[in-house]
TrEMBL record:
Record bears the keyword Nucleotide-binding: no
Entries under PROSITE patterns matching the protein: VOC
InterPro entries recorded: Glyas_Bleomycin-R_OHBP_Dase, MeMalonyl-CoA_epimerase, MMCE/EMCE_epimerase, VOC_core
Organism: Galbibacter orientalis DSM 19592
Protein name, UniProt field: Methylmalonyl-CoA epimerase
Pfam families: Glyoxalase_4
Parts forming coiled coils: none
Biological process (GO), any one: L-methylmalonyl-CoA metabolic process
Domain annotation VOC: ranges: 3-131
Keyword terms of this UniProt record: Metal-binding
Amino acid sequence: MNKIEHIGIAVNDIETSNTLFHKLLGVAPYKTEEVASEGVKTSFFKTGESKIELLEAMTNDSAIAKFIAKKGEGIHHIAFEVGDIQAEIKRLKEEGFTVLNEIPKRGADNKWVAFLHPKTTNGVLIELCQEIDDKA
């Protein structure tokens, strides 16, 4: 794992939260997008080397809607940048972690993503991300 890529925060209303984080960080979001496969709207902020991803549910049955219903707004996941997501999934499985999706899927911010079950990571949802190289 190379570094923490971003911290994901589940929010009820992305526009209200965009305003709050703009005030907090002193920068506007550099990207907003919808990830239909996950049923979320996302917004990304960058400050220094760090990124924050805000996530709002687009459907009542999305993972973010369920998370907020159970725990309220707050930190949803920590994402780590990896150089080879397939190799990292294999390594982590061999180490005993439960991988929620063994085949990486397209996520927000032009990334391949895969998640580790929080039951095997001290209650924290871990996301692995690898930049998608559209030129390859």
